[in-house]
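During the no-cost extension, the postdoctoral fellow (Dr. R.K.) reprocessed legacy sequence entries with the updated structure-token encoder. One reprocessed record is reproduced below for audit purposes.
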Amino acid sequence: MNFGGRFARMRRVACLSLLLAAVGVGVDAQPRVYKWVDANGVVHFSDAPPEDGTAQTVVVPSTEAPAVAPRPPANTRTPVGEADTAPQAPAAATPPARPSAPDCSTQSPAKRAGLDLYAVDEEPPLPLSSEQIETFERVAKTMAHRWSGNETGFACEAGVRQSLNRTIVSEGRAESALQFVLESTITARDRSHREPLRIAVRNERLWVNQGDASLLDVSERGLEFGYRERVGGAVSERYWRITLDGRRGMKIERAVYTNGAMLEATVWELSKAY
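Re-encoded structure tokens follow.
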């Protein structure tokens, strides 16, 4: 008998069995990942093949295997890019930009917003919160003083810009906890006029010069507001921004519009007069 040939054949069979066993162990030890492309062209990796049998089986080392996401339910499609896009938080609402460099062609906020310019007696503004009222009271106390300084800016006459440079003396006084008056005398050359500003909180609403006003902002550094009023046959829009510089200085920015058109934009730079 040819024991040598039989032994050789047995040895080859044994080696082949050991090799197959080794391969089998190697495959089972690695994660089986199925790579497939859906109808929208999106590549997917999953731990089970799709039902249409179009998957390509990929075996990768466990240290390199991608995270396997659950397969989408049958008869559904994943829009292109949706699977890789995290939900986005809604963008914060952005308030309308305040004109940084107004000129005689600048329209009033009411006209830019498409409001009825002549509807002055519309629904009154919302009531102020208790925190806003308390902050207003503190700001009014800080403004209650004698101020002096200069006014710069421009006025529009028939659409033509005229530069302004005037001196100002203002007397601020708190008539009560929630009522403040700023009486200002504005002088240019030998001519002067008075500009009264009466601010109060009545029935939890802001009042300016005996009419409703919209409070745009209030903080320890100052306040901003706007209001509309009839002047003769025209409607005037006025916006004030008062900024306190500690307890020594005060800056007032004013913008006045008539029937939606710019009339005057000025800045008061004031300091306490001793």
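Residues 3-69 form one domain. The chain has two domains: 3-69, 109-272. The remaining legacy entries will be reprocessed before the final report is submitted.
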